[in-house]
Amino acid sequence: MTTTSPTAAGSGANATQAFRAARQSSGGEVTSPERVSDVVQAVLSGVHEAIRAKKVTYPEFQAAKQWLIDLGEGGEWPLFLDVFVEHVVEEVAAETQHGTKGSILGPYYLPDQPKLPSVSTLPMRSDEKGKPLVFTGQVRDTDGNPVAGAELDLWQADDEGYYSGFAPHLPEGNLRGVVVSDGHGRFEVTTIQPAPYRIPTDGPTGGLIEAAGWHPWRPAHLHLIVRAPGHRNITTQLYFQGGRWVDDDVAQATKPELVLDPRPGDDGKLRARYDFVLEPA
Ligand code: MBD
Ligand code: FE
After folding, report:
1. What are 164-195's pLDDT values in tens digits?
2. For 127-151, how does the pLDDT look when each residue is reduced to its tens digit (9 = 90+)?
3. Residue 271: CB partners within 8 Å, gap ≥ 6?
């Protein structure tokens, strides 16, 4: 289980830096004034309505302002938005998506990780803690044909719930990698079972959760982006059957189709299989 660590404080700020860096390489899109007005008006109306319905007071309004200032200064906008808002953006995107179900990207994706062969072990420390997990499967298209050379861009927390790149005590690239499927679309990745993730309790997002009396946990999960030329990317997460918080994710990002059921293999390692289905781009 996750223990308190001095590294938790910096993680939200790092997510802001990672987000800026990713935006720089993706380039901005222009949104029409009509669209900006339409969406922002709807958001503001929702806020206005909440203030009326709940009879929000001046002290509460000023406390909210202070919290929003702290959220930005603490670098936690990505963390807060991905935990409490992204699942609905994903829900809307899913309306036009076929094949494997998607889930939220979250704040801890880092691009440009090393490419690994179809049978690989994720980069990890020599004494990496956690139950070994062998994750196998096949990538197919919506017609059932295997997709050779598909990329499984994988990232996950370690056995204490920390992500490399967002926790200074972890080596760069730990438990991250891009596994490339073989000629039959198959892959076999050896890793460790991640721990559940706890929102850092020492920042504004954790402060809100505490003040509201909610719990700060996400169930243990593997993150993936699956991509192949001519196919639409799938950004998703895989969870673990029977795992703590699978039915009570603070980020509301679980789906019944995305739950692995690992079983011990002959070698004692847990084995889980998942096949991905990509639709045409
Ligand atoms: C995570 O690990 C995560 O996946 C999401 C969506 C939000 C916060 C932390
Ligand atoms: Fe995560």
Report:
1. 999 999 999 999 999 999 999 999 999 999 99
2. 999 999 999 999 999 999 999 999 9
3. 133, 134, 135, 136, 262, 263, 264, 265
Indicate whether residue 218 lines ligand 1 (CB < 6 A).
yes
CB 209 within 8 A of CB 170: no
| Complete domains list, the chain, with CATH | 8-30+76-278 (2.60.130.10)
CB-ligand 1 contact for 104 (6 Å cutoff): yes
Testing ligand 1's pocket by substitution, the residue of 16, 82, 91, 104 carrying the most ligand atoms inside 8 A of its CB is: 82
In this structure, the residue with its CA closest to atom 3 of ligand 1 is 106
Sign of CA dihedral 228, 234, 236, 241: negative
Q: Contact at 8 Å (CB) between 67 and 204? A: yes
- Cβ(224) to ligand 1 under 6 A? no
Phi, psi of 180, deg, nearest 5? -105, 130
